[in-house]
Design a protein that fits this description.
The protein is mainly alpha-helical. It has two domains: 65 residues, Cytochrome C biogenesis protein (Helicase, Ruva Protein, domain 3), CATH 1.10.8; 54 residues. The protein is built from six helices and no strands. Helix 2 crosses helix 3. It is elongated and about 90 Å long. The two termini are 43 Å apart.
Length: 155
């Protein structure tokens, strides 16, 4: 691979590597042992308020959300896992109680479509950059072009 090509692509490759490392670091960071209140609010943030519009059970001051938070806290004190607590809330209120749709059935579209759109956008950008690079190389003047310019400047 020519040095010029490497120099041109190096900043982009470095940027991708930096973003990937930052995302991996952020995703793998664990909070260690979290308090019962923090765990309760985390789980409550994944559940919609059954009577409010656009709020999670963690955000809402509605009595129904307060009851949900109390139930989550009691379940955590009883040693239940987050998945089991969420499953019991789904059994009580239905799948619509979850802030994040399940990754199955129609709900999988919510997870798959954005990934497909991002991949298509990246592919489009790569194709455009390659096309622009090829057009720039095709526009390089040759000896015939230089001779025409010299003749035009002489007149």
């Amino acid at each position: 691979m020519p040095v010029k090509t490497i120099r041109r692509w190096f900043p982009w490759v470095a940027l991708v590597i930096i973003v990937a490392v930052a995302l991996a670091f952020g995703a793998s960071r664990s909070g260690g042992s979290t308090s019962l209140d923090a765990r309760t609010m985390h789980i409550a943030s994944e559940v919609r308020c059954p009577v409010c519009e656009g709020q999670s059970a963690a955000q809402s001051p509605a009595p129904a959300s307060i009851l949900i938070r109390k139930q989550i806290r009691a379940d955590l004190q009883a040693g239940q896992s987050e998945n089991r607590i969420l499953a019991s809330l789904v059994n009580a209120y239905g799948v619509g109680i979850l802030e994040k749709p399940e990754a199955q059935g129609v709900g999988i579209l919510v997870w798959v479509v954005p990934v497909i759109v991002v991949i298509a956008a990246i592919a489009g950008l790569v194709a455009a950059f390659l096309r622009w690079g090829a057009a720039r190389q095709e526009g390089t003047p040759d000896e015939h072009d230089r001779a025409l310019v010299e003749r035009a400047l002489d007149h």
